Amino acid sequence: MINKDKQISSIAIKQVFLLAIILILAGLICFNLALFIPSVLGAITIYVVCRKYNFYLQEEKKWKPWLSSLLLMLASLIILILPIYFIGDLLIEKLGNAQAYMTKFNVFLEKIHSYIYSKTSFDILSKENMAKLKDSVGKFSTTALSSTFNTLTVVMSMYFILYFMLEKPRLFERILTSSAPLKRANVSLIGEKMRKLIMANAIGIPVVAIGQGIVALIGYFIFGAPSPVLLFALTAAASMIPVVGAAIVYIPVCIFMIAEGNTGSGIGLGIYCIVVVGLTDNLLRFTLLKKLEDIHPLNTVFGIIMGMNLFGFMGLIFGPILISLTLLLIQVYGNEFSDDDTPDLQLPGSNDEPEQKIDLIV
């Protein structure tokens, strides 16, 4: 006789079947519209940044929705997109000729290696290791730059999507909220965490990067570093990488200048970068980024690696967001299906305060 308690209920079977269909359809959509994933991520990022101002203009100042949307799109283009696009375009312009770039890079490496070996007799870069390094740098730069050539298409489609988000923001958030099969508190948690993550990545990281790049650029001009504008773009991009940061650019440059015979300038640039650029990095990170959201360095490292492979230069911002969102969803999953009805995580509105209206993004 079959034990009915051990039978799978028809409701559970229907749920699994429906979930499988949803996952298959979502996979097909993502696979065929993969080109527009960066556009969607970018539109959501800018929407979160502009959300407060959009509600202010539409609901308090009574602006026409299309007018406030266009104004905020223009402002985001000037303040957020153009500085990042400028750095990416500069790198493409300077490094677009892969053969000429690799020739200069090989000379640069050989000069540094010869100088270190002559002074220390330490073969820090053997021929085998140098060949691997050159090959890795060549592949990475080619992939990153080729992925960035579609930036114009991504930006155009991103603003097309963003317009409809900004024009009817309440409708957009209501659709997302009603579509999420989660507890209300978890929807609020995701909204609040996403707001902090996006603000930290979309505003904090680029501000730190450009700030370090500008401070380093001043030093490059003062001490006569080669190609200071190119070094500015490389320093700004490298500063987004935790732990090593901008040092991965300015230390080899200092050694190269010393190897070229510019000992005083090389040492002076090294001291300037360690003290001034390092101080700028610490100041911005421990004030701006800590205030926005304390993101673990490993999230940023793996996020940048994944983001650059998926989205090119724009992955510097989107990659860490995706890693952090994945970890957040794992936390929400544990909270959603735990036996305890009380959330383990500190959620907005989870105190004994009177229940308030909760938006998707607080």
Automatic annotation (TrEMBL):
InterPro entries: AI-2E-like (IPR002549). It comes from the Bacteria. It is a multi-pass membrane protein. It is found in: Membrane. Its main location: membrane. PANTHER family: TRANSMEMBRANE PROTEIN, TRANSMEMBRANE PROTEIN 245. This is Putative PurR-regulated permease PerM. Belongs to the autoinducer-2 exporter (AI-2E) (TC 2.A.86) family. The chain crosses the membrane at residues 16-49, 70-88, 144-166, 198-223, 229-259, 266-284, 304-330. The keyword Lipid metabolism does not apply. Keywords: Membrane, Transmembrane, Transmembrane helix. One of its GO terms (cellular component) is membrane. It comes from Chryseobacterium defluvii.
